[in-house]
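Quick one: structure for this chain?
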Amino acid sequence: MATYRIYSLSDPRDGLVRYVGRTRNPIEVRFKQHWERGGKHQTLGPWFAELQSIGMQPIVGLLQEHNHPYAEWYWANEL
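Got it. Here's what it folds into:
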């Protein structure tokens, strides 16, 4: 069974979690994909643009490693 990493992207200005996702890749790899394509993401695009304009980027956090593909939903509702 695959291992999923549940991760968060938080705003460095206030620490609030703005996004929860899951990946099978290392979270650093997934964040890089988000960051490079951020302008195309409906939720992340405007926030990333705002952070980039002030020389900042989100804080990436590992919430859980799990083999259940729906653990992301739990964390999205929990935070």
